[in-house]
Specification:
single chain, alpha+beta, nine-stranded mixed sheet, 3 helices, globular
Length: about 130
Amino acid sequence: MHRSRVYAVLIDTPEEEAEQAAAFWSAALGATARPDPDHSQFTVLHGALPGIVAAIQSVNDAPRYHVDIESDDPEAETQRLIALGATEITRWLDCRVLRAPGGHLLCVLPVHSPPEVFQAEARTWP
């Protein structure tokens, strides 16, 4: 058995537009935009989605949205999602990038939220 939960919603934005996107989305959602000091491609939108991280991600690709799912067993969660119809595209650092039926991207990563949040909100899977 393993556990997982939606951790983040990312607004993937072409690099040259990331600053404008962060300004727009922070104002639109009433959030505070702050660059992630550990990962320069992310600008976190603090307070945008209570209980879930929202961020702008600067990408060398087309604009899109994607979901990050955190798990106490990323390999088991990846296999569960593949069994549901997703395909694994690549791995980046500790993140597994998948494409869901319909074409949407999602990432599976190790637990990043505080332990009490993960414990309270994660679902258990066989």
